[in-house]
Design goal:
Blueprint (H helix, E strand, L loop, with lengths): L13 E5 L3 H10 L5 E5 L5 H10 L2 E3 L11 E6 L4 H13 L3 E4 L12 E5 L2 E5 L6 H14 L5 H17 L3 H13 L1 H7 L3 H17 L6 E6 L10 H9 L2 E4 L16 E4 L11 H13 L3 E6 L9 H10 L3 E5 L4 H8 L13 E5 L11 H5 L4 E5 L5 H10 L7 E6 L7 E6 L3 H7 L6 E5 L15 E2 L22
Parallel strand pairs: 1-2, 1-4, 2-3, 4-5, 8-11, 8-12, 9-10, 9-11, 13-14, 16-18
Antiparallel strand pairs: 6-7, 14-17, 15-16, 15-17
Helix pairs in contact: 6-7, 6-8, 7-8, 10-11
The structure holds S-adenosylmethionine.
Length: 485
């Protein structure tokens, strides 16, 4: 971010526009909405500017720009029709450290102008750092269409009521909740409809309710955040993220997803220091209960879906045992997302009638799976956390009678920019993983193929060539204990 968006207080401050033509008029129209003191300097000034100046109270100075015009000026716009004259304004302004905008000259400017949606006092500024103004225009049009014309009246009215809320509710959490109810509910509708009496009644009702409520109950949402691509978040997950006072975040949650959360929400990393890479499950449970008991809305963010290899049940039980309300917001699990990303159907009407998810993680290296059932023809499953235990899976399945040529597909970092997908055969799985440098997180699909579905393999797929394969044999005892992959 080269340009940092800020809102400048121009109340009563002097702003100078150098130029008397169309460019100057455009800037003047915008600035006329502020409470700044405005001055236009030019040898010739168009009639439209003169008319606006009369209406709004703008000082007009009829001479060619001179550096002494900058005395007392907080901000200057160089809006003349020739670049040479603008360069003189720019040099004089920079020498005095005055904030400068050269119209159509972002590189000479010290600030640039965003596209603006004006619902005063709600003002939305949209910028692309000059890279694609058309995008800014498109976003502006969407926001303009979405925000009612009198939307600003809601914020203006809220401003007049702030003190009353503060006097009645000393607790900041209670205040925030009350404002949420007012600004998202009937009070806002009444203000927008111009129903002053209705708005007043609803305001009093909400304030009375908040006052009599006493200690606020906290809550916990166990939110599945999907495989990584923020576009795969559900609408409900987005909503809960925006409401949350506290975020307890897992290792595999894409940091881009946190952009949906409030900036002032407390973030607790449950996957890294200082709470530790090995933040024990009991400690996470304790954090959830501790924060919710303070009356906070806690969002527990998990990769994929919370109920698939996510230990959500343990968290749910701990939170419930403390008498706190808890909900689960489902997310798109890695197997579903990875399959979709490589267009690999997980079931087929005739050939694949069941699909399972299995874990390749084991605390003690032992896999208590029904290998014989999994090895049968027509079985399909996705292995989670299976990169390191792939040799063990390969050996067990082959020993149980699975075909050496059973198709396998490995999808690493599914839905993320560095996604990779490799197709191989079961007997090649460990060598394919090693040769292709797959580190995970990855999903390994077994028993699924595009051909059976009448589809062609996607172009982005890497195919592990059988000629490369030298089946690695290893004993079961070699399988190292695995916790993640
Ligand atoms: C502890 S499990 C959590 C699974 C998660 N709850 C879900 O529903 O996807 C972590 C495993 O999920 C899989 N995984 C998560 N995100 C992935 C991604 N973007 N691409 C491929 N596999 C992923 C990997 O197998 C990883 O080791």
């Amino acid at each position: 971010m080269r340009y940092f968006p800020v809102y400048l207080d121009l109340d009563g401050r002097e702003v100078l526009i150098v130029g008397g033509g169309e460019k100057a008029l455009q800037k003047l129209r915008l600035l006329a909405k502020t409470s700044a003191r405005l001055r236009v300097v030019a040898e010739e000034i168009d009639e439209d500017i003169v008319a606006l100046a009369r209406e709004r109270g703008v000082a007009l100075v009829w001479h060619r720009f001179r550096p002494s015009d900058l005395a007392e000026v907080a901000m200057v716009f160089a809006a003349q029709d020739d670049a040479e004259s603008d360069a003189k304004v720019a040099a004089a302004a920079k020498a005095r450290g005055i904030q400068l905008n050269v119209v159509d000259g972002p590189r000479q400017s010290t600030f640039i102008m965003p596209a603006i949606v004006d619902r005063d006092p709600v003002v939305v500024a949209i910028g692309t750092e000059g890279s694609a103004p058309i995008l800014a225009r498109e976003i502006k049009a969407k926001i303009e269409a979405w925000l009612p014309a009198n939307f600003g009246s809601v914020a203006a009215r809220a401003m007049t009521l702030r003190r009353r809320v503060q006097e009645v509710l000393s607790d900041t959490v209670a205040r925030r909740r009350t404002w949420e109810r007012l600004l998202q509910g009937r009070w806002r509708s009444a203000v927008l409809a111009g129903d002053d009496e209705g708005a007043e009644r609803e305001f009093d009702r909400q304030l009375d309710a908040a006052q009599s409520q006493g200690h606020l109950a906290g809550s916990v949402s166990l939110i599945g955040c999907g495989p990584g691509d923020p576009d795969l978040l559900t609408l409900k997950a987005q909503q809960r993220l925006q409401e949350a006072d506290v975020l307890v975040v897992d290792r595999l949650v894409n940091p881009a997803i946190l952009e949906y959360a409030r900036r002032d929400a407390l973030r607790i990393d449950a996957g890294k220091e200082p709470e530790g890479p090995s933040v024990a499950q009991e400690d996470i449970n304790r954090i959830l209960v501790r924060e919710a008991l303070k009356g906070q809305r806690v969002a527990r963010l998990k990769g994929g879906d919370a109920f698939i290899f996510g230990r959500a049940a343990e968290e749910m039980a701990a939170v419930r045992a403390a008498g706190i309300s808890v909900e689960v917001v489902p997310g798109i699990t890695a197997a579903h997302a990875c399959a979709a990303s490589v267009s690999l159907p997980l079931t087929l009407r005739r050939q694949v009638r069941q699909f399972a998810v299995v874990t390749g993680a084991s605390a003690d290296g032992a896999f208590d799976l029904d290998w014989a059932a999994m090895a049968k023809e027509g079985q399909a499953f996705a292995i989670y956390m299976g990169v390191r235990s792939a040799p063990c899976f390969c050996d067990e399945l082959l020993a149980a009678g699975a075909g050496a040529e059973t198709p396998v597909v490995i999808v690493e970092n599914g839905t993320l920019a560095d996604e990779r997908a490799v197709a191989a055969q079961l007997s090649q799985l460990p060598v394919a993983i090693a040769d292709k440098g797959i580190k995970g997180p990855a999903i390994i699909f077994v028993g699924l193929d595009w051909a059976a579905a009448g589809l062609s393999r996607p172009d982005k797929l890497e195919v592990y060539e059988p000629a490369q394969a030298t089946r690695r044999t290893r004993s079961r005892a070699e399988a190292t204990p695995v916790t993640q992959g």
